[in-house]
Write a structure and sequence with these properties.
With about 160 residues, the protein is an alpha+beta fold. The protein is about 50% helix and about 20% strand.
C-alpha cells in the first residue's frame, strides 16, 4: 500500500511541466517554412525561437530531397501595418529585390545579344523565385487567418 502511494506521488511529481503557449509569430513562421518544404510533415523544431525586433529565427530539422534529415535555420521577418498589426514578409525579399535591380542594370548595359539573353534569363529566374516565396507567404497567411491568429496583434506576440 505504501509502495503504491509512493509510486503515485512520484508519477505526479515527475510529470513534465506544460509547454507555454506558442507565440503566434512562431506559428505563422512555421506555417511558411512548412509550405516550402518537400516533406512538410518532417518539420521538427530543435531550439527555442529567437526574437529580434520584428523577426523570429527558428532552428529546425526537416528531410531534404533524399529524405535525409537536415538541420536548418530560417528567419521570418514581419512588417508592421499602419493599424499596428504584424504581417509576415516573403523569404529573401530584400535579397531578391537587390538581385533583380542588378539584373536589370546588366540588361540595360548589355552590348551583345548573348549578354542580354543571360540578363533576361536571370530576371525570369528571380521572378519565379519571387512568385514561389509569395505563394508560400499566401499559404501561411491563409492558414493563420483560418486559425484566427492573423494578422498578428501587438499584445499577442513578442515581436516589436
Amino acid at each position: 500500500m505504501q509502495i503504491a502511494a509512493l509510486l503515485m506521488a512520484a508519477a505526479v511529481t515527475a510529470a513534465p511541466a506544460p509547454e507555454p503557449p506558442t507565440d503566434p509569430a512562431v506559428t505563422v513562421c512555421e506555417m511558411m517554412i512548412r509550405a516550402g518544404l518537400r516533406a512538410p510533415e518532417s518539420y521538427r523544431r530543435l531550439a527555442a525561437p529567437l526574437f529580434s525586433g520584428a523577426s523570429v529565427t527558428l532552428t529546425f530539422e526537416a528531410y531534404d530531397a533524399r529524405r535525409r534529415p537536415k538541420r536548418q535555420e530560417k528567419s521570418c521577418d514581419f512588417s508592421r501595418e499602419p493599424d499596428g498589426t504584424f504581417r509576415i514578409e516573403p523569404f529573401r525579399k530584400a535579397h531578391l529585390a537587390s538581385r533583380l535591380a542588378e539584373a536589370r542594370a546588366k540588361l540595360s548595359t548589355a552590348t551583345d545579344g548573348q549578354a542580354a539573353l543571360l540578363a533576361k534569363s536571370e530576371i525570369i529566374d528571380i521572378g519565379r523565385e519571387q512568385y514561389v516565396t509569395g505563394q508560400q507567404r499566401r499559404e501561411a497567411e491563409y492558414e493563420a487567418a483560418r486559425a484566427g491568429d492573423y494578422p498578428l496583434k501587438p499584445g499577442t506576440t513578442r515581436l516589436k
